[in-house]
Automatic annotation (TrEMBL):
Pfam families: FTSW_RODA_SPOVE. The keyword Cell membrane applies. This is Peptidoglycan glycosyltransferase MrdB. It comes from the Bacteria. One of its GO terms (molecular function) is lipid-linked peptidoglycan transporter activity.
Amino acid sequence: MLDLRRLTGQELRLSEKLVEFNWGFLLLLALIASIGFAMLYSVADGSFTPWALRQAARFAAGACIMIVVAMIDLRLWMRLAYPLYGMSLALLIAVEIMGFTGMGAQRWLDLGIIQLQPSEIMKVTLVLVLARYFHGLTLDEVSRIRNLLIPLALVGAPVALVVLQPDLGTAILLVAAGAIIFFSAGLRWRYFIFAGAGVLAAIPVIWSRLHDYQRNRVFTFLDPESDPLGTGYHILQSKIALGSGGIFGKGFMEGTQSQLNFLPEKHTDFIFTMLGEELGLVGGLALLTLYFIVLMFSFNVALQCRNQFGRLLAIGISMMFFFYVFINTAMVMGLLPVVGVPLPLVSYGGTSMLSLMFAFGLLMSVYIHRNLEISRGPSAFW
């Protein structure tokens, strides 16, 4: 029997949403996170503290957030897009005023109970607000100059604040996420060509304004052997660890570079290196395969969605996830300069874990409401 609610886009009951929720997708995320728990257990020399147990608790909390977010009507998330973006922007401003410095950058807010990194939240809310904005435009309206001023400001404001922290890696991710939404909304190619030409022309100015450590990262990327005990230490140790892992690895908790503390930041940015040393090429490819399945499911959600808001939101979340994986894995292999981008669901980190699970909750809301038809224009907001 045909379900008329699915055909007409009427609101589903909570029980129906729970049935529609893709529990297999949550299980897939739990499998990836479990690999992270195992690596954090190995980092701590066979102890669940201080990282593995805390990370598991964060994933459990994130799974609850994901389910709750998925149960909320997609139209409500569209109404909340601007307020959530405004809240994230206010938190970024608060970082400039009262944020504390860690690892050479002022990126965190101490809220007493938790330490929050607002830039991680902004990555999700920026995708949300751009999807909301472009939902109200027709394909012809997207490429009109006057209609691009607001979304450019929506991208530019958080990018400027993040650059001030300074966090160039996150700023690049925000720009990339914005560009993907612009492209998916139907912005004409010539604008991207002009933007690319502008960036190339501005490279000398950008280079002159980089901090010394940021320039050193570029020099190190080009020639890491020039300073093997200084700026090149991180990437050289990472390459040694990955290469020594071979095909099948040295065995769980048997890595020499990681267990003897030659490998820096092994519980955060360089956790993929540790996995490659202990579990080898096979272990690394297994994790990347799981990531690929997540990505394909996310793109499939976008293809199935019947409304523009949900389609753009799913594409934005999918590409944000891809950028996380690509930049982190390419960085530890020496294919990109070293930047502070965590490996999704695997690297230790509270804000990144919870914000990513919130994003997946939005993705699942799109999946549950994929047949929902949402009208365009101002009335859709209210």
